[in-house]
């Protein structure tokens, strides 16, 4: 069975070898994440180029996602430091220590919003402090839960309403590098509202980057404004690391389901991220709880599941990808065995004719046991609409645009195929069937449903559904 759920893997030192990259792609990587919170511009550009080259050697259409650092405060310190319960710790309000021993942050201006009594959580909440008093040039905090603080660990302020900008200076620099690399998606960290989407698009356009933008949901205010954020962005990520620190941990599973449902209703891709197979950083197999976590995200309806440190710095990057692939295939086989039809997974809320036609096409494919739904597309819109219905027939998106095909690598269930040259007035639907056959994604004798918004090249938009049987040479014939 072909896997429908997409796998996002973070690039890093563990994937720098060309052999490892090729093995990871063959094991199932669909999207490479470049984490701009770590590494240099040269490292990012080199990794993207190596990933593209490896994908070309493997013969796979993939996407690259730039993950912006965002206004994430990190501790800048030369060596680890132990914080004891009851200790007073001082944070500089500037870019350098106000007094010897002060902790300095990457975004010190954000401390201006902190008030006495509010929590300050270091290293994903492993160390807990409480703000006590603001002195000239520094903020004093008391350690409630101590431990070892390592360099570059993050600071969360769950009780503090922040007035930070959507994009920091580091974000603008990351966007500039992402434009050089030619990424397919831009992920925006710590989104608080829908207004951030236009700000990010403007920043991308200023450097010649036209990639779609993805909102990472990891702040409480973002959860409260989820519907508006989903509407404004092209996709979302449920970034459970910071979300699990900013929100009570027990709320995260429910919020995950809510956000997936919001994205699905809008036809926007959604990624579930953080700690999915975290133990595989150092072990060749995950815990049973981690395997269940991946499966439950798929049952919830996510488009993609993501690996972070498992592939970036872990000892078993290829094994982690292969394991995630096996979990996804097994879960999807069970869902298909349950005969969960498209109408039970998605109920269109809009009144667009495309909603009804897409759902009808997916239901038809299920009823006649079609091998595939083929969608000739110029923008990817028709393929995305089919994807949100979650049909069990393969969705084959055929497009003349390499950019569109690469962006669709993130979307559930879609297999991308390049469209051959098409003359104005030619039937786009027949060409798509022949191209899908030539790419080996459908076989002679199979019955397929063809769904197109523009069936004739250069013609008017006229949503159309056909049922055809694939001939010996790939020519569509009587069903």
Task: Provide a descriptive summary of the structure in words.
- It is a single chain.
- The protein has 16 helices and 23 strands.
- The protein has three domains: 238 residues, Phosphoenolpyruvate-binding domains (TIM Barrel), CATH 3.20.20.60; 84 residues, M1 Pyruvate Kinase, Domain 3 (Beta Barrel); 136 residues, 3-Layer(aba) Sandwich (Pyruvate Kinase, Chain: A, domain 1), CATH 3.40.1380.
- It is elongated.
- By secondary structure, the chain is of the alpha/beta class.
- An eight-stranded parallel β-barrel has the order 1-2-3-13-14-15-16-17, surrounded by eight helices. A seven-stranded antiparallel β-sheet has the order 6-10-9-8-12-4-7, covered by helices on one side. A six-stranded mixed β-sheet has the order 20-19-18-21-22-23, sandwiched between helices.
- Strand 1, helix 1 and strand 2 form a beta-alpha-beta unit.
- Helix 1 runs parallel beside helix 11 and helix 6 crosses helix 8.
- 35% of the residues lie in helices and 23% in strands.
- It starts with 5 loop residues before the first strand and ends with a strand.
- The longest helix is centred in the last third of the chain and has 21 residues.
């Amino acid at each position: 069975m072909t896997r429908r759920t997409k796998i996002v893997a973070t690039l890093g030192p563990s994937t720098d070898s060309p052999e490892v990259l090729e093995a990871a792609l063959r094991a199932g990587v669909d999207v490479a994440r470049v984490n701009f919170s770590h590494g240099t511009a040269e490292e990012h550009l080199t990794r993207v180029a190596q990933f593209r080259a490896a994908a070309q050697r493997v013969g796979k259409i993939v996407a690259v996602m730039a993950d912006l650092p965002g206004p994430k405060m990190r501790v800048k310190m030369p060596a680890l430091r132990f914080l004891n319960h009851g200790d007073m710790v001082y944070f500089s309000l500037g870019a350098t220590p106000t007094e010897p021993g002060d902790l300095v942050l990457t975004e010190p201006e954000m401390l201006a919003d902190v008030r006495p009594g509010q929590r300050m959580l270091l290293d994903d909440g492993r160390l807990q402090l409480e703000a006590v008093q603001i002195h000239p040039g520094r903020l004093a905090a008391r350690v409630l839960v101590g431990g070892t603080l390592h360099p570059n660990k993050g600071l969360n302020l769950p009780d503090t309403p922040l007035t930070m900008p959507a994009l920091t200076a580091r974000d603008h620099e990351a966007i500039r590098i992402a434009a050089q690399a030619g990424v397919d998606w831009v992920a925006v960290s710590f989104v608080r509202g829908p207004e951030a989407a236009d700000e990010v698009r403007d920043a991308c356009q200023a450097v010649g980057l036209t990639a779609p933008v993805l909102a990472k949901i990891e702040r409480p205010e973002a959860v409260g404004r989820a519907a508006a954020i989903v509407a404004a962005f092209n996709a979302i990520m449920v970034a459970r690391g910071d979300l699990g620190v900013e929100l009570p941990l027990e709320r995260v599973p429910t919020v995950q389901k809510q956000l997936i449902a919001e994205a699905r209703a809008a036809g926007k891709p959604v990624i579930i991220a953080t700690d999915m197979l975290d133990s595989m950083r150092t072990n060749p197999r995950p815990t049973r709880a981690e395997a269940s976590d991946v499966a439950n995200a798929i049952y919830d309806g996510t488009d993609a599941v993501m690996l972070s440190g498992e592939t970036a710095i872990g000892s078993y990057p290829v094994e982690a990808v292969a394991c995630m692939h096996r979990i996804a295939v097994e879960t999807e086989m069970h869902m298909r065995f349950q005969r969960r039809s498209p109408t039970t997974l998605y109920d269109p809320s809009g009144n667009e004719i495309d909603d009804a036609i897409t759902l009808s096409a997916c239901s038809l494919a299920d009823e006649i046991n079609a091998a595939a739904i083929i969608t000739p597309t110029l923008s990817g819109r028709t393929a995305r609409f089919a994807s949100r219905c979650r049909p069990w027939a393969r969705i084959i998106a055929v497009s003349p645009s390499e950019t569109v095909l690469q962006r669709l690598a993130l979307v559930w269930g879609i297999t991308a195929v390049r469209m051959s040259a098409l003359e104005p007035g030619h039937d786009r639907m027949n060409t798509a069937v022949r191209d899908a056959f030539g790419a080996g994604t459908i076989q002679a004798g199979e019955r397929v449903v063809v769904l197109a918004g523009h069936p004739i090249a250069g013609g008017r938009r006229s949503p159309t559904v056909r049922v055809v049987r694939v001939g010996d040479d790939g020519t569509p014939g009587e069903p």
